[in-house]
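PROTEIN DESIGN WORKSHEET
SECTION A - STRUCTURE
LENGTH: 67
TOKENS:
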């Protein structure tokens, strides 16, 4: 793709070639950060679920000990 950059006096200032590949690093960086946020969220929920499960197991073990 070619874009013409025009100065305020409407003169042709510069002809700049803009390609899709110039935007690829930004695109991959955004995907990477989204993926990291997604994984952190999943791990956090797994961590919370683990402690809920652990507390349930602890309650069961304590009730068995008291018998």
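SECTION B - SEQUENCE
RESIDUE ASSIGNMENT:
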């Amino acid at each position: 793709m070619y874009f013409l950059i025009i100065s305020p006096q409407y003169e042709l200032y510069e002809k700049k070639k803009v390609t899709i590949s110039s935007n690829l690093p930004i695109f991959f960086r955004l995907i990477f950060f989204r993926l990291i946020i997604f994984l952190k969220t999943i791990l956090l929920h797994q961590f919370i679920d683990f402690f809920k499960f652990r507390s349930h197991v602890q309650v069961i073990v304590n009730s068995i000990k008291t018998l």
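SECTION C - NOTES
The mean pLDDT is 72.
The longest strand covers residues 12-17.
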